[in-house]
Amino acid sequence: MPAVPFEYHGPATLDEAIGLLARYGERAKALAGGQSLVPLLTLRLARPEVVVDLNGIQELRVVRRDGDDLFIGALVRHRALERGEGALAACAILREAAALIGNVRVRTLGTIGGSLAHADPAAELPAVVRALDGTLVVRGAAGERAIPAHEFFIGALTTALAPDEVIVGIRLPVLGPGVGYAVTEFTRRAGDFAIVAAVAVVEVRPAGEIARARVALAGVGSTPIRLPGVEAALRSERPDPRTLRRAAEGAAREIEPEGDAHASAAYRRHLARVLTARALERAAAAAADGRPA
Question: pTM for the full model?
């Protein structure tokens, strides 16, 4: 089924793109990698009058290290994340998460900004940004603002972006030695959206106890969900498998998943416990080794 007719614009600058989005408002859609928008257009689930193609805007491709932070431009492709190109090597968890996205064709075209703006609750990258307490830098007609990840994701396919705003980039912390990362997920087929995914970041002190743990889940709610109870249960504990698994049992108590055609609510709770335990064990082992998972 062909998409409904729309007016196409390919701005060369971010200011030009924002001007177009401000002019057309809700009637316009921004196009990044197209891996979410194009299927919606084809199925006529999205019917914009205007499509604003962001791919000619070079400033959205920037990747740079800013002190203890990594800034990733919104048009950076999943494939670049997967390969850890250039400064992206400083955030190893992105390589692991990006490798789980779709197939190589999807990863070659898809962008980190597009994934975050689409805000699919089962997607890997929103959960990673949530686990890392990332910040999204957005710009619109009123200027630029920084939105913490916990405020950015509002609901399924719904974010804090205004109609005239564009994600410029994402700021993520660069975590040093003694920090391990892991992403685990369950899918029916390789490359599918996760039924449930777990992201764990574990920091281990030199003495061997956990200084801080961060856990986020995808696929168990309308947004990526942090597990503060699990995180608190691990603080100052030794990261042995029994302790990690015991803490992971609390994952099921912190979520309210819904059943659907892919999995029942009870099965999603079960996967949350199992995948959280696996992610924590891998992340803790990597932290103890002084290398990313």
Answer: 0.95
In a domain? residue 1? no
- Nearest Cα to Cα of residue 134 among 107, 172, 98, 84: 172
What does the alpha-carbon distance between residue 99 and residue 79 come to, in Å, rounded to a whole number?
A: 8
Using an 8 Å Cβ cutoff, are 223 and 153 in contact?
yes
**Are the CB atoms for 186 and 220 separated by under 8 Å?**
no
pLDDT per residue as tens digits for the range 227-240: 999 999 999 999 99
Answer yes or no: is 40 within a domain: yes
Question: Domain range spanning residue 33?
Answer: 7-53
Structure-block tokens of residue 264: 């029942």
- Domain stops at, among 132, 150, 173: 173
What is the C-alpha to C-alpha distance for residues 55 and 240, in angstroms, rounded to an integer?
47
CA distance 40 to 49: 14
Task: Tell me how far apart the alpha carbons of residues 204 and 210 are, in angstroms, rounded to a whole number.
Answer: 4
266: exposed, middle or buried (C-beta count within 10 Å: 0-12, 13-18, 19+)? exposed
Question: What span, in angstroms and rounded, lies between the C-alpha atoms of 32 and 99?
Answer: 19
State whether 115 and 64 are in the same domain. yes
Cα end-to-end distance, the chain, whole Å: 43
Examine the domain organization and report whether 35 and 70 are in the same domain. no
**Residue that finishes a domain, picked among 173, 200, 227:** 173
pLDDT tens, residue by residue, 67-100: 999 999 999 999 999 999 999 999 999 999 999 9
Which neighbouring-strand residues pair with 259? Answer: none
